[in-house]
């Protein structure tokens, strides 16, 4: 029997790959005949490995197979299908089995290439955010319009193969009309995931390019923070939202402990830390633990990651909401890092005092795309880069350049020396460029083949064309 969604190529290294699929409830499910995913992995015509995974109804019959002991920089093909088995005949899951295990001619296929390894000198990827899907009827077809952006990314991949695709928030809108209309139950929410991910162009992208995702507010509710969980009903609402998110997005990310949604990974020598800026945030300064965007554990893990990866040629930090530039307060600035200046100050201080270079923030959320650099008046070696790409598709008016502080000076009391013996006022200044309010995605390229990283970012419209207002690449 064919799978009902996927496959999605998830977290991939030079020796392993995660493959995600969705099955379906079988006709004998109530009599304990359960659904299993079946996978055959090929290198050319050679069968390399076979595996089963259990597709739990709790996760809407989604699941992953993890293949390891693969060869670096090697093209593979995976064939996927479904089998239904009673407990007594259940196959072993998550381990290699004798194959092939796919006999159905209606199998689904994906192709991918493993990473090139730690000695690689190049990295090419695309990222973006905010893919709205609601008005899908005779008068307004968001499905067709929103999928055009992904067709352009697929075409880019064919010309210039991508190492990964990053979707950095609002992959679905669980509250398409904000408080006027929200998906109220798990099945309805999963249906919008299925509608979004089965569209032909995004499906083609995700079955050929390793895909990484992180949520933002609309996977839960607009401007979400833990403060909104005031009752048992709110807690159940949140748990349902996160179960859908885990099923369709987090499951194919790198493994994390149960309930943790931030993660890190590497592509060759290049390091990535993907922040969860939603599920741990507390807006109420009087709450236990105080106001926070990341929470204590994640913030400390981020500092440790920065320290451990200080020698990486480029360190990419994914923050669904922009670290900078800042939207103005009447445009939701308090929901971004501008509303959490104490925590932002800690991060800036750590990067500056520790002398960590080549840190690049990747963000979305604000329905406007921009480039920005931040420097420090008291430390000429300090430099941060911010790349913001949003939205993939949004049918309403977009944000304009006047909605942002294009340039801004931030002042904090911080340590002024590496020995941490004195504190004083430290001033940071960022200046932004671009501020394109239109459907877009961003392509990033890095080359360290000549020593110092040579990095560029380009913003493309939904048709894959440069914007006349910012047609050239941004170098950082």
TrEMBL record:
InterPro entries: Metallo-depent_PP-like, PhoD-like_MPP, PhoD-like_sf, Phospholipid_Metab_Enz. It holds the Pfam family PhoD. This is Phosphodiesterase. It comes from the Bacteria. Residues 150-381 form the PhoD-like phosphatase metallophosphatase domain.
